[in-house]
Amino acid sequence: LRAVARAPGAALVHCAAGKDRTGTLVALALSVADAERQAIIDDYAASSERVQQVVARRLSSSPYADNLQGRPLSSHLSHAETMISFLRQIDDTFGGVLPMLIKMGWTADDTDQLRAKLRG
Fold first, then answer.
1. What span, in angstroms and rounded, lies between the C-alpha atoms of 47 and 21?
2. What's 30-45 look like in SS3?
3. CB within 8 A of 35, min separation 6: which ones?
4. What angle do CA 60, 66, 72 make, to 5 degrees?
5. How much is the pLDDT for 2?
6. According to the model, what pLDDT value does residue 17 have?
7. Is 39 exposed, middle or buried (0-12, 13-18, 19+ CB in 10 A)?
8. pLDDT of 74-100, one tens digit each?
9. How far is 8 from 30, CA to CA, in rounded Å?
């Protein structure tokens, strides 16, 4: 999050499928930027719209093909309930995303930088 906040221009966040690790980081960033909770959940769940293309691409890559063989497409979906549970756990454990990040060394300046980046 700090790398995104302090990047001199746009920042690209990705992982192999672009949904779970990426979705988690984006959810945290959007939370810091005070996005509506439902918008964060909907954004995460929207990854399912392209899951067929993502899986097809990964099947063509040897590091992933063995792991993906025989798994139903449904096992790759990004369910809204997953993000709801993730954010609820953060709320219950830390009192919210910002308190969690602060416990990890996040600063008010980090928050200001990330909000400026994401809000424009």
1. 12
2. HHHCCCCHHHHHHHHH
3. none
4. 85
5. 95
6. 65
7. exposed
8. 777 788 999 999 999 999 999 999 999
9. 19
Residue 28 CB contacts under 8 Å (≥ 6 apart), including other chains = 1, 97, 101
Q: What is the pLDDT of residue 100?
A: 98
The two tokens of residue 102 are 């602060």
Amino acid in position 3? A
Cα separation, 13 vs 21, in Å, equals 9
Residue in this structure with the two tokens 């899951």, named with its chain if needed? 51
Write out the two tokens for 117.
Answer: 């980046």
Cα-Cα-Cα-Cα dihedral of 112, 5, 37, 14, to 10°? 180
For residues 82 and 42, give the distance between their C-alpha atoms in angstroms, rounded to a whole number.
Answer: 11
Report d(CA 29, CA 118) in Å as an integer.
8
Q: Quick check: 27 and 39 in contact, CB under 8 A? A: no
Is the whole-model pTM more than 0.85?
Answer: no
Q: Which residues, given as ranges, of the chain have pLDDT below 50? A: none
CA separation for the pair 62, 67 (Å, rounded): 9
Distance of CA 29 to the CA centre of its chain: 8
